[in-house]
Amino acid sequence: MEYLSLGVQVVAVVTQRSEKVRRYIEETGLPFHILVDDSRDVVKAYGVWHAVGFGAWNIARPALFLVDRQGIIRYSFVGSSQFEFPTHEQIVGAIVRLAADG
User: Fold this and answer.
1) Which of 22, 28, 61, 90 has the highest count of CB atoms within 10 angstroms of its CB?
2) Are 99 and 9 in contact (CB under 8 A)?
3) Residues 82, 62: contact at Cβ < 8 Å?
4) Contact 39/66 with Cβ under 8 angstroms?
5) Does pLDDT of 95 surpass 60?
6) For 30, what's the count of Cα atoms within 13 Å in the CB-facing half-sphere?
7) E strands along 1-102, which residues?
8) Are strands 8-9 and 2-3 parallel, antiparallel or unpaired?
9) What is the per-residue pLDDT for 58?
């Protein structure tokens, strides 16, 4: 999915079981790709996994990373709790800045 015609591709990473994720995608018709990280290797590599969270085990903090074409992280947001997310304005602003930097 190209976001705002700026050449940004959206990919979600989830650590839930793939069957639940597949059903959710079929039910909602999500317009972007989802990587099912059963092993939690990706969330650990990005530093957002933790073994114990509020009412859950082995979860990832809500996070957003903008990665350029060379694989360099240009923007990151990592929530301090399961309920903290960047605002739409923060996300769009970061995308616009990344696109302007080329």
Assistant:
1) 61
2) no
3) yes
4) no
5) yes
6) 13
7) 2-3, 8-9, 11-14, 33-36, 49-53, 56-60, 63-67, 73-78
8) antiparallel
9) 64
* Predicted pLDDT at 9: 79
What DSSP string describes 71-91? S-EEEEEE-SSTT----HHHH
Backbone angles phi, psi at 56, to 5 degrees: -150, 160
Averaged pLDDT of the chain: 80
- Report how far residue 10's alpha carbon sits from residue 99's, in angstroms, rounded to the nearest whole number: 14
Tokens 């959206």 correspond to 10
- At residue 78, does pLDDT exceed 60? yes
Share of the chain above pLDDT 70, in %: 85
Which domains are assigned to the chain? 2-101 (3.40.30.10)
Residue length, the chain?
102
Q: Which residue has the tokens 């929530």?
A: 79
